[in-house]
Design a protein that fits this description.
single chain; five-stranded mixed beta sheet; alpha/beta; six-stranded mixed beta sheet; 8 helices
Length: about 300
């Protein structure tokens, strides 16, 4: 068993400012119960045109600084640390990318988003990155995972959580822990609601029997688990709401009940939970949801995947 935490800034600071603050204030050391796995809730806006003109090579120095800061946080606290979702330029294309650093500060897992949305503003006529007005975020072609002492870990970002095949193949690859960051509400005509969130990572967890940390901008930060190992069988390990609300027919009162259940540390809201991998394995063994699946149905996607 080990402790995990989700942290998210309560201000409108940039990701760089947040990482600097986390490092300088030694924030992780102030979290109760000393977590070994920490997820930072950060996700770029889908419409990135407001970020200013970004030209080829323009992300290099800033991007390297963010990775160095995240590496220092992981190494300084001897934790597995994921800094959320970053905008990455690779090979002349832009991606939404998630990372996991080990306690030595090394990148052991990178996952680019498979179903992205958004554009990066181009630098104008003559730019070799594409037509003026915007360069689309590119889609990844692989799903990666990492073996760690905590368990096998995967990353899901953004809209990928609403594509069930991603979690299913992770489960077939025996991923036990998923770190997810997303942004609830696609636009003004489709605002965020609890049902949207339930249809994402919560559903992935129940269908595939892994544990997931979900940092959701506009939604709830939640630690999910199979219903059988969660309080009141809600499928939510943390935070924990009241039993009477969990037993009501609608999930909405329960979501409202847990919306303010978090700790505040140096301007960050913090959710913590205890993860029991052995308990997860007992559920997988006694109620083997995946036993009767046909893995060959997923072979087309699985052939292109690699492990880092």
């Amino acid at each position: 068993m080990f402790k995990c935490a989700i942290i998210q800034s309560m201000s409108d600071c940039s990701i760089k400012e947040d990482l600097i603050k986390i490092k300088e204030l030694k924030l992780i050391s102030k979290i109760e119960n000393s977590p070994l796995l920490v997820l930072l809730g950060y996700y770029p806006e889908d419409d990135l045109s407001g970020a200013g003109n970004i030209v080829k090579g323009g992300l290099g120095e800033e991007y390297s600084l963010l990775l160095d800061l995240a590496s220092g946080i992981a190494r300084g606290h001897s934790v597995y640390f994921s800094p959320g979702v970053l905008l990455e330029e690779e090979g002349g294309a832009f991606y939404f990318s998630s990372f996991l650093f080990n306690p030595d500060g090394e990148i052991i897992l990178k996952q680019q988003q498979l179903y992205p949305a958004g554009k990066v503003k181009s630098s104008g006529p003559g730019d070799d990155m594409g037509e003026p007005g915007g360069n689309c975020i590119k889609a990844a072609k692989t799903i990666n995972y990492a073996e760690t002492e905590l368990g096998k870990i995967g990353l899901i970002s953004g809209r990928d959580c609403w594509h069930p095949e991603i979690g299913r193949v992770m489960a077939l690859e025996k991923v036990e822990i998923v770190l997810a960051v997303n942004r609830m509400g696609f636009n003004e005509s489709f605002p965020a609601n609890c049902w949207q969130q339930m249809a994402g990572i919560w559903s992935q967890v129940q269908q595939n029997q892994f544990i997931a940390l979900e940092a959701s901008l506009g939604g709830q930060n939640l630690v999910h688990g199979p219903c059988e190992i969660t309080p009141y069988r809600t499928g939510i390990l943390a935070p924990v709401g009241k039993e009477e609300n969990a037993r009501k027919k609608s999930i909405e009162p329960y979501f409202e009940d847990i919306s303010g259940v978090y700790s505040e540390v140096d301007g960050f809201k913090v959710i913590t939970a205890e993860i029991d991998i052995n308990g997860l394995k007992r559920i997988q063994s006694s109620y083997p949801l995946l036993k009767h699946l046909n893995p060959s149905l997923y072979c087309k996607e699985m052939r292109g995947w690699r492990r880092i």
